[in-house]
Write a sequence for this structure.
């Protein structure tokens, strides 16, 4: 249950980050880097799936990797503000119990 709440918090935080990024870039008279927005969307997609109820540790790990990459790419501007999202996703992934699957005929 906590994993879903943390994924929701990371989704909301990342959405607010995107809004702030767009406002700051447009205020500076520049156009936003749409590839960066796409990278963030790729990082949020697994979170939305997790919030919808399809819990997957692999999805959370993938999201954490993409959000951490986006944070590093944007570190010279406002990228550090993605840190809470990445931390929430890492904690959510660590809280999930690994699924126990048995192979037919074994175990």
């Amino acid at each position: 249950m906590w994993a879903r709440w943390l994924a929701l918090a990371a989704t909301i935080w990342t959405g607010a980050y995107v809004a702030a990024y767009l406002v700051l870039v447009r205020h500076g008279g520049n156009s936003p880097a749409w590839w960066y927005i796409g990278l963030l969307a790729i990082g949020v997609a697994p979170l939305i799936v997790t919030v919808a109820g399809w819990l997957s540790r692999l999805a959370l790990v993938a999201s954490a990797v993409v959000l951490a990459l986006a944070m590093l790419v944007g570190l010279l501007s406002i990228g550090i503000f993605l840190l809470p999202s990445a931390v929430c996703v890492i904690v959510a992934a660590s809280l999930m119990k690994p699924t126990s699957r048995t192979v037919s005929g074994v175990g």
About this structure: Residues 100-107 have pLDDT under 50 and may be disordered.
